[in-house]
Amino acid sequence: MLNKNQIAQRLAKELKDGYYVNLGIGIPTLVANYIPAGIKVTLQSENGLLGMGAFPLEGEEDADLINAGKQTITTLPGSSFFDSAMSFGMIRAGKVDLTILGAMEVSERGDIANWKIPGKMVKGMGGAMDLVASAKNIIVAMMHTNPKGESKLLPNCLLPLTGIGCVKMIVSDLAVLAVTPEGFKLLERAPGVSIEEIRAKTAGKLIVDGSIPEIEI
After folding, report:
1. For the chain, what is the mean pLDDT?
2. Inside any domain, residue 215
3. How far apart are the C-alpha atoms of 206 and 184, rounded to whole Å?
């Protein structure tokens, strides 16, 4: 299975030159450390930053320089700071090419639930609602199963939805899958992970077409 950093490395391969990219809280933030050489992407943080860099080295953190998840970050030459109203204006205007989010559940139709577990206190939905409604492409980074071993890739989400029919791709610790009208299409599998294991841990409809290569990190 892939660890969190390996998931981030695989996600980074989906970045394209010139993209404006928003990285959600959790595994997605690690993508900033693995941007491929030779391409330029501009990372946006909804708390008001354009031009986010990798995480700082130990001892070089600036407590006043954080991302939306309150993690300390670095900036790149030419970066800019602005208020959250302008930041969300950028998101809602469709200026973000790709959003990478974490998720609690994804349905086989591309619905995403990533903001609330009933009965647990939350501060609010945050920026995810705007991102899933406005970004041109949504990719989810997640563990394939929850701590109880139950699938998080479902026929229908059981938790409150953040967005409907918006997820295009999933990179989990077990596999890379595309969301198609027919269901989850298996594109790649983690090294040493069998198709049978992925099938057993995917509650939604899984499409396996031909030989499935292993993920290359």
Report:
1. 94
2. no
3. 5
163-194 tens-digit pLDDT: 999 999 999 999 999 999 999 999 999 999 99
Neighbouring C-beta atoms of residue 86, cutoff 10 Å = 13
Q: Which residues pair with 145 in a beta bridge?
A: 151
Record the pTM. 0.93
Residue 186 dihedral angles phi and psi, to the nearest 5°: -75, 120
61 annotated active-site: no
State the sign of the Cα–Cα–Cα–Cα dihedral 28, 32, 37, 41: positive
- Tell me if 67 is assigned to some domain: yes
Which tens digits make up the pLDDT trace of 84-113?
899 999 999 999 999 999 999 999 999 999
Q: Which residue has the tokens 């030159």?
A: 17
- Amino acid at position 86, single letter: M
- What is the domain-level CATH number for residue 19? 3.40.1080.10
Structural domain including 121 reads 4-207
Residue 213, in any domain of the structure: no
Which one of 14, 46, 60, 182 is the catalytic residue?
A: 46
Structure tokens at 213: 């290569």
* CB distance 176 to 170 below 8 Å: yes
Predicted confidence (pLDDT) per residue in 4-36, tens digit: 999 999 999 999 999 999 998 889 999 999 999
CA–CA distances in Å: residue 56 to residues 26, 102, 105: 16, 22, 31
Domain count, the chain: 1
